[in-house]
Hints:
By secondary structure, the chain is mostly helical.
Amino acid sequence: xxxxxxxxxxxxxxxxxxxxxxxxxxxxxxxxxxxxxxxxxxxxxxxxxxxxxxxxxxxxxxxxxxxxxxxxxxxxxxxxxxxxxxxxxxxxxxxxxxxxxxxxxxxxxxxxxxxxxxxxxxxxxxxxxxxxxxxxxxxxxxxxxxxxxxxxxxxxxxxxxxxxxxxxxxxxxxxxxxxxxxxxxxxxxxxxxxxxxxxxxxxxxxxxxxxxxxxxxxxxxxxxxxxxxxxxxxxxxxxxxxxxxxxxxxxxxxxxxxxxxxxxxxxxxxxxxxxxxxxxxxxxxxxxxxxxxxxxxxxxxxxxxxxxxxxxxxxxxxxxxxxxxxxxxxxxxxxxxxxxxxxxxxxxxxxxxxxxxxxxxxxxxxxxxxxxxxxxxxxxxxxxxxxxxxxxxxxxxxxxxxxxxxxxxxxx
Length: 412
């Protein structure tokens, strides 16, 4: 209880006490008043009296509970800045590009002229400079300028429609899928044809044996002895070169096989397949030949920024280049039961696989060969009009710029 000598003064801080269980809560303001009165009225009292007074107050009001700190007011979190997805950003860019005014005929003609000039400049470079990674940048920039101005629509069109390849394991196809893609005989893929070589050997044998026999009967004296031996030696030289360096005979094989009725058409379809898929995948072409076995890798370096056979190829680079390498086989397979020009394409594909970042085992090589052929066949069938127009331009011997215009005219 309170000491008799203490008087309570009314204060605005005083509040009625509220029961809280067996003990009562003590208002902090009441305790302050008691302390002030103890100091003012009992200034002469001893320390013991003050202690007794405070003990009595504690007994009456109970032990004070520690003050609970007021938690700081939480601020509303700031809204996160809006994020734009890559797909949305690409869509916005495409809409802005589509909204641009089309190029005038004069501007388009100037762009085509610039492309022709860049191609001629590249073809005039020495082979050592042409193989550099930056050699085709001018041609690539000219084609990109035409595409940005909406003058061309097919260039790099297949790259925009991704082939959904994340790893090498995604690059696979079955025989049934090849059949569905339009390949007449999927079993013939990967089996090099020897028809052209056999034709060359037969022609070489007849071209030496028949004259040697005639010379032995017609020529007098020693000439009738030495000439047949010399002609027989030609056949021995051909067999020796064919068994050690068969590539040296490719020119002669191509020329001899011109007698085949379907050789020129095969060559045309084969090289048109390389040309079209390269253009659709954003790889510019600066030249072409209707000889089966001739490759077009001089501008592939412009796409990846370095020579194709230097450094490692990631999955995106490998997928695009493998489709281009096997597009000639796909073009033949869409129209013939066998593929005559696949030997050089398989060699190019093997060189690409040897440069892959991920290790490629034998089964993966087979899967990639089938997958690349299937993708090439799908592109050719999807762009059938462009393919037909390109073959017509190539059969007339038109230059690269005119062939590209033929593709774009068929697209539009």
